[in-house]
């Protein structure tokens, strides 16, 4: 199977807060990150979003406050979802 990814993934585990206007806030952990997006681990109760929805996300537990970024839900797997960073 050919890898069609734009950017290579890097394993990266941090806690991230995801905010959605209707579904509220959820705290999840990342699995990996790339220049174009991030994959987050979800449990069944957190799987409320649909492909194409936009959420905001912010890395937690850093010594300084991380920026809030907008991300679009682009795919789901059995253990989580892929989010693509939205560019200005």
CATH structural architecture: Beta Barrel
* Tally of domains: 1
Q: Indicate the structural class.
A: mainly beta
Mean pLDDT: 90
Number of helices: 0
Reading the helices and strands in chain order gives EEEEEEE
The low-confidence parts are: none
Alpha-carbon Rg, integer: 13 Å
Largest sheet: 6 strands, antiparallel, barrel
By DSSP, the count of extended strands is: 7
The CATH superfamily title: predicted glycosyltransferase like domains
Q: Give the oligomeric state.
A: single chain
Adjacency order of strands in the biggest sheet: 2-3-4-7-6-5
Shape assignment: globular
Walk me through the structure.
By secondary structure, this protein is mostly beta strands. The radius of gyration is 13 Å and the shape is globular. The chain has strands at residues 10-11, 15-20, 24-33, 37-41, 54-59, 69-77, 80-85. The model has no long low-confidence stretch (mean pLDDT 90). The chain has a single domain, classed as Beta Barrel (Thrombin, subunit H), CATH 2.40.10. Helices cover 0% and strands 50% of the residues. Strand 2 (15-20) and strand 3 form a beta hairpin. This is PilZ domain-containing protein. It holds the Pfam family PilZ.
């Amino acid at each position: 199977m050919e890898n069609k990814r734009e950017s290579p993934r890097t394993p990266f585990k941090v806690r991230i807060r995801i905010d959605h206007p209707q579904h509220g806030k959820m705290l999840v952990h990342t699995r990996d990150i790339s220049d174009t997006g991030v994959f987050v681990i979800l449990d069944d109760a957190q799987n409320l979003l649909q492909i194409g929805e936009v959420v905001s996300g912010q890395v937690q537990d850093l010594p300084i406050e991380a920026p809030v970024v907008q991300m679009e839900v682009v795919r789901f797997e059995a253990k989580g979802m892929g989010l693509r960073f939205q560019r200005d």
